Amino acid sequence: MIANVLTIAGTDPSGGAGIQADIKTFSALGAYAASVITAVVAQNTQGVRSFVALEPKWTLAEMRACVAALHRLGPQWVLLKGGHLEGSEESTDLLHDGQRFIELSAPRIATKNDHGTGCTLSAAIAALLPSTPVEDSVRTAKGYMHGALAVSGELDVGHGHGPLHHFYRLWGRGSDEGDRIGSARSPKRALLSPIVWPR
Question: pLDDT tens digits for 28-78?
């Protein structure tokens, strides 16, 4: 069965973040995408020019249809994304389940195409969760995001921070750096060697 996954976010006309990145990530990882749009944004790869927030009553009506399902998930896990922290050759995220702190590290990638890493990571996790345990979903999602970031230089979108290459696996880029790091080997073995701290 194909998972139905909901994203609640604003638009990004450059396609690198927001609803567009979420939908591309859901689709690239085999989930069916549904969305609630909270704002329409005018931006390009160099920045946001303006935005219009949608009427809260209208957005709330959409979200109410999903509240029960979201509430059942509960805040059992927290993921702190550390990709934008400076001063390290590693990009380390911290996953916490209330008892353990799990460090998930990957080599930092020097690229200007880093727009939408957080949206892509969260969308990938959401796409994987219906069929994969939480910790494995986060590991696999980080591997996918790292792969999409590694080959993002193949895209030439705008003049500022460009998007990740969300479809790098589907567009025959399997032999490139992104696939080697992100998917050819298990992210557990090849990319994300965890450090688990007891509470």
Answer: 889 888 887 888 999 888 888 998 887 766 655 665 556 445 545 665 777
Q: Is the pLDDT of residue 193 over 50?
A: no
Domains: count for the chain = 1
Q: Is the pLDDT of residue 136 over 80?
A: yes
Residue 38 belongs to what domain range? Answer: 4-198
10 Å CB burial of residue 125 (0-12, 13-18, 19+) is buried
Residue 58 CB contacts under 8 Å (≥ 6 apart), including other chains? none
DSSP for the chain, please give it: -PPEEEEEE---TTSSSHHHHHHHHHHHTT-EEEEEE-EEEEEETTEEEEEEEPPHHHHHHHHHHHHHHHHHH-S--EEE--TT--S-SEEEEEEE-SSEEEEEEEE----S--BTHHHHHHHHHHHHTTTS-HHHHHHHHHHHHHHHHHTGGG---SSSS-B--TTTTTTT-TTSHHHHHHTSS-HHHHT---EEEE-
Distance CA 110, CA 52 (A): 33
Per DSSP, what are the bridge partners of residue 91? 106
Q: What number is the average pLDDT over the span 109-135?
A: 88
CATH number at residue 159: 3.40.1190.20
